[in-house]
Amino acid sequence: MVFSNACREMGPTFISLRLRALTGDVSLEIDLQVDTGSTYSWIPRKALEGLRIEPKGTWPFRTAKGERVFREVGDVIVEWEGQTGPTTVVFAQEGDAPAFGTHGLDSLGLEVDPVTGGVRRREHLLALDGEEGTDVQSILEEEMRAMMDGIPEIRGRPELKRLRVVWSPRSDHGLPGKLAGNELLIYETEASKAVEALRHYVRDFLTSFLFEEYREIALGYLELTKELAGKRF
pTM above 0.90? Predict the structure, then answer.
C-alpha cells in the first residue's frame, strides 16, 4: 500500500488491543505501533509470559539493518473493538521494538486508513458478511488455493495438495479452527472471520513447512562441510 506525503506527516499509527492465550481467561491490554512492514507482531517477552503463552518454536527473522536473528514465537488471541482473531507473535527481547504486524491486522480484518492514518475494518470483509447465501466453503477453498499458488518454490508439491480446508461452523468452540492431519477445520461462523482464520493457519503451516525444508538443507550442508574438512585434514 502506498501512502501520500500527507498521510506520512500524521506520524505512526497505534492500536489498542487485548491479548490472551488460546485457552484461559487471563488477558492483557496493550498499545502497539502498527508496522505494515513487519509480518508478525513483536510483543515483550514478559507480557507473553504473564499470559502463560508457550513458545511453539524458534524462527529466523531479518532486522531492518539486515541482521539475521532468531526469536521464539507463539500463538495468541487478539481483540479490537469486539473483533477477535488468532495470530502468531514474536517473543520480543530487550532492544526489540514492540509492534503489531500484518498477520495480526489480517486476523482481525483490519487495514490502515490512508486518509486518517488510523486502523479500520476492511470494506470487502464488511461486504462479505452482508451477503446472504454466501458459499463459505467455496470461498475458503479458493483462498487457500491462491495462498498455496502464491509461493513458486512450493507450488505443486504433492504434500501440500493433500491439505484441504473444511468449514465446520461451531459457535460453542473456543478456537477459530484446528489442523487435524490433512484437514484444516475452520470453526468460525461468520464468513469474514472464517477467511481470516484460514489465512492464519495456512500462513503458519507454510512458514513451518518452508522452515523445516530449508533447515534440512542447511543441516545437510553442515554435515557435508564437516566431512570434507575431515578428509582434507
Answer: no
φ/ψ region of 232 (left if φ > 0, alpha if ψ in -120 to 50, else beta) reads alpha
Strand 177-180: give its sheet, edge to edge.
164-167, 183-186, 177-180
pLDDT in tens, 176-222: 898 887 889 999 888 888 888 888 888 777 777 666 656 665 556 55
Query: Alpha helices, DSSP H only, in the chain?
Result: 5-8, 45-50, 102-108, 123-130, 136-149, 158-161, 191-232
Distance of CA 124 to the CA centre of its chain: 20
Which single residue is written with the C-alpha cell 470483509?
125
Domain assignments of the chain as residue spans, ordered by start: 1-121, 130-233
CATH topology for 1-121?
A: Cathepsin D, subunit A; domain 1 (2.40.70)
Q: Is 41 exposed, middle or buried (0-12, 13-18, 19+ CB in 10 A)?
A: buried
Q: List, for residues 48-60, the tens digit of each pLDDT value.
A: 999 999 999 999 9
CA dist 63 to 30, 35, 170, 214, 220, Å?
23, 13, 40, 19, 26
CB-based burial, 179-189: b 16+ in 10 Å, e otherwise = eeeeebbbbbe
156 three-state secondary structure: coil
